[in-house]
Amino acid sequence: MNRQVSALSLTLALALLGVSCNGSGGGGGGSSSPMPSPPPAPAASISPSALADATVGTSYTQDVSVPPFAGPYIWSVSSGSLPPGLQLGGSTSTVNTLSGTPTMAGTFAFTIHEQCQGKMYSANYMITVH
Length: 130
Fold this sequence. Notes:
Elements: H1 2-16, E1 60-65, E2 74-80, E3 86-88, E4 95-100, E5 106-116, E6 119-129
């Protein structure tokens, strides 16, 4: 009986540690199912998910950011175009700034891309300039 209790204790301890024991065991004689894997962590991305509208002739500033890694960070507009008068700053940190004074009304779609230490993030944005 001590042998069965020891085998059961070991199986429970291994299960709590996330170690699966497939196959037949010494005192239990059966097999146990593998422990389910934890769900993957949510994907990191560029924040925020949307940008505020702008107004022609009015100063505009909006920060965009990514989770911290061991830089340097390389930011770019990889497709589309920013509204005329706005630019993405030259930051090499986790936060970059989209700023300027829009000079033309319209709706502008673009993608901001960030790369750091082999990690790449992109976010599709749209700004309406009134």
